[in-house]
Amino acid sequence: MGITERKEREKEFKRSIMLEAAEELILEKGLDQLNMDEVAERAEVSKGSLYQYFNNKNDLVLGICNKATTLLSEKISKVLTNDLPGIELISMIGATFMNFVNEHPEYFRAMKFHDNLKESNELENSSYLNACKNNLYSSFTCMVRAIQIGMQDGSIKKEYDPKELALILWGTSHGMVSLVYQHENTRHFNLLDELGIDIFSLFEGYMKMIGTGVSTGVEKNEYDSKSFFETKKKA
After folding, report:
1. Which of 4, 69, 143, 154 has an alpha carbon 20 to 30 Å from 86's alpha carbon atom?
2. Distances from the Cα of 15 to the Cα of 10, 12, 45, 64, angstroms
3. Which domains does the chain have, with CATH numbers?
4. What phi, psi does 22 have (nearest 5°)?
């Protein structure tokens, strides 16, 4: 290994330690309470060293967002490697997104932070802004590709424009995932408990409604009876 390569690996390792420290603090105290002093202390680095990697708190959270969207993009891309009808790939992408948020609430907070600040001038100097955007676009194009596959194999109606349908699915699924996030991570959000609704049943109902709306008649009966979270429920 050359000197340059070793230095770059050491740099990335140090960056990952800082990001992990920030993630732990977000889980413990919340995003609003995150500050650079505590991140430096938790990562066991000087504050000056932390600022060599991240310009400010916003840049640090966007670094987490980049890590999160990279991981999510990889998981969603992996779905397309399955030899399944397009309608099944769509359901798997939806389940992958929901499980990702359920397992990594700190990542979803960073992604929401990115959405809330992307129009702000405070982000102009962040090197992570375009990376987050590109990762999310990559996930979106996977959804488009799954729809195209479904139209080719006959499992999805051809009357839709793939990109428009992908936007509809992306937007509505984001709303459903936000409900799951609030239920699991917001103390005063008791709507689902008050209604006696299980989050996995809710998401299954959503996915089946979408599936029966866009799938062809050949696929509908099987889709109606499918459970997307059987493993999760048994565990």
Report:
1. 69
2. 9, 5, 11, 10
3. 1-54 (1.10.10.60), 56-234 (1.10.357.10)
4. -65, -40
Longest alpha-carbon distance in the chain: 62
Rounded to the nearest 5°, which phi and psi values hold at 134?
Answer: -65, -40
Q: Which two tokens stand for residue 162?
A: 């793939």
Residue 122 DSSP label = G
Both structure tokens of 3: 């000197």
For residue 71 the two structure tokens come to 């991981």
Which 3 state secondary structure label does DSSP give 189? coil
- Tokens linked to 131: 């990376």
Q: What is the mean pLDDT of each run of 10 residues along the chain (235 residues)?
A: 80 93 89 91 94 91 92 96 94 89 84 68 70 92 96 93 93 82 70 80 81 71 48 38
**What is each CA distance from 159 to 2, 108, 137, 207, 227, in whole angstroms?**
55, 33, 24, 19, 26
Strand, helix or coil at 215?
A: strand
3-state secondary structure 154-175: CCECCCCCHHHHHHHHHHHHHH
